[in-house]
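Hey, can you fold this?
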Amino acid sequence: MSLYQIKVEDINNKVVQLQEYQGKVLLIVNTATECFFTPQYEQLQALYDKFHDRGFEVLDFPCNQFGKDAPDSIEDIHRFCVETFETTFPRFQKINVNGEDESILFTYLKRHEKGLFNRRIKWNFTKFLVDQQGRVIKRYSPRTKPNKIAADIDWLLKKNNQ
């Protein structure tokens, strides 16, 4: 199975096949609106603004598994993110990232990550960087601020254009 075969649901319950993002650099993030890391939305939007025109997407997957930090409906979560952080990147339905009911997307990301991380996602705002061919390049902890990922995104975007 490739990343591009996976289907997810957007905030309007429309099924989206990740193949729509083939050829783009992706930052896939499990998020929450009442989390210590919620202010990272601002830097995620800054990355999106900086790199979107070059083929970059942030894919936002709210998750209520950690501290019940995303208790609201997807409509309320979306409204909060747009009004508070002026986010414009794609947001999807709430998902689980660990356990029996975890999203197949996060099963895939954890299985294909590189690095020495524990396979289990420990908290919201874990970030996965995916290259233009759908390969998981790197996993970042919730503590990694999105602006610290900018150089890796820029490198992937330049690498593909050489």
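Oh, and this one too while you're at it.
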Amino acid sequence: MSKAKSAPKAIHGSFTIERVFDAPPARVFKAFADPKSKAKWFAGPPGWVELQREMDFRVGGTEIAHGRFPDGHESKFVARYHEIVPGERIIYDYDMYARGHFMSISLATIELTPQGNKTAMRFTEQAVFIDGEDGLASRKEGTEFILGQLAANLPD
């Protein structure tokens, strides 16, 4: 009798990233809410090719961002919005797929607070990694990369 291969253990973790953007909350919120604005910054590194993008920004709405990296592997982000408070807060969950495999599920909260003409943003993510490959450090690194692209692509 052969021994069945067991699934990787579920690994739980959370992180918070705080940033200050040189724009009022309405502009930062628009970067998340407007599909054209979000497509400018919510993408992979140079050479990443978009394969599918859908966005229904409303409570209960979904978002999909699917693309291929220069090395040929694909990633897919599938989200559902739970709370949207214009200019203040967005809460959503998302599944992440890589190389055709389900790798994690996360709950993300974006909080925006005015600071004069600027916006303080707190991004908090709670994740369960189930693929045995990804983990908290790489997810935080990827999120910091994406938020850097946001800072460089704030809408008018």
